[in-house]
Design goal:
By secondary structure, this protein is mainly alpha-helical. It is built from eight helices and two strands, in the order H-H-H-E-H-H-H-E-H-H. It has one domain. The two termini are 30 Å apart.
C-alpha cells in the first residue's frame, strides 16, 4: 500500500485522472486513491461519507430510496449548506460512487433520488446525467442512461436483499 499522506490533493487528483485515462479503474492504487480523496473531502468538513454509506446501505436493505436531503441529515448538515456540496463533479455523490467502487459495493448512490423520485426511484434528468457521468469516469459502460440507472438501482436492492439474508 502506498503512503498517500504526504501527497497533495492536486497530486492525488492527477493520479486518479491518469488511472481513468488509462482505463485502470480496477488497479489497487486507483482504489486506494479514491478512498484517500474521499477521506480528505470528509476531513474538510464536508458531508460524511461513512454516515451516507450507512444510510444508503440501510435503504438498500429496506428496498427504498432516500433523498439528497436525507443524506444531508445523516451528516447533520443543513440543506442550505449541503446542496452545494452534493452534486456535480467532485460532489458528495461522486465521492460516494468512488468509495462504493473502491470497496466493491454496488453503486449505492443510485438509490439517492430527488424528492420527486422518492416513491418511484427515478432520477430527474440533470441528476441522471451526473450519475451516468460518475459511472463512466469509473470505467463503467453506460449506453442509455435511464436504463443504466434502473439497473444500478435494482442491483442495490438485490444487494440489500442479500445483506438481510446474511446479516
Amino acid at each position: 500500500m502506498t503512503n498517500l499522506t504526504e501527497k497533495t490533493d492536486t497530486e492525488i487528483d492527477q493520479w486518479i485522472r491518469n488511472h481513468e485515462q488509462k482505463g485502470a479503474t480496477s488497479a489497487p492504487l486507483y482504489l486506494q486513491l479514491l478512498e484517500e480523496r474521499a477521506r480528505r473531502s470528509q476531513e474538510k468538513g464536508h458531508l460524511n461519507i461513512d454516515m451516507s454509506l450507512e444510510l444508503l446501505a440501510q435503504a438498500a436493505i429496506e428496498q427504498r430510496c432516500v433523498t439528497y436531503g436525507d443524506l444531508a441529515k445523516a451528516s447533520k448538515v443543513g440543506w442550505s449548506q449541503a446542496r452545494h456540496r452534493m452534486s456535480g463533479a467532485n460532489g458528495h455523490l461522486d465521492r460516494l460512487l468512488d468509495v462504493c467502487h473502491a470497496r466493491g459495493l454496488p453503486m449505492l448512490p443510485a438509490i439517492c433520488v430527488n424528492e420527486s423520485g422518492r416513491d418511484n426511484g427515478e432520477l430527474e434528468a440533470s441528476a441522471l446525467g451526473g450519475f451516468a457521468a460518475g459511472a463512466r469516469r469509473l470505467g463503467v459502460a453506460v449506453a442509455e442512461e435511464r436504463s443504466f440507472h434502473r439497473q444500478a438501482r435494482d442491483a442495490c436492492w438485490h444487494w440489500g436483499r442479500e445483506q438481510s439474508r446474511t446479516g
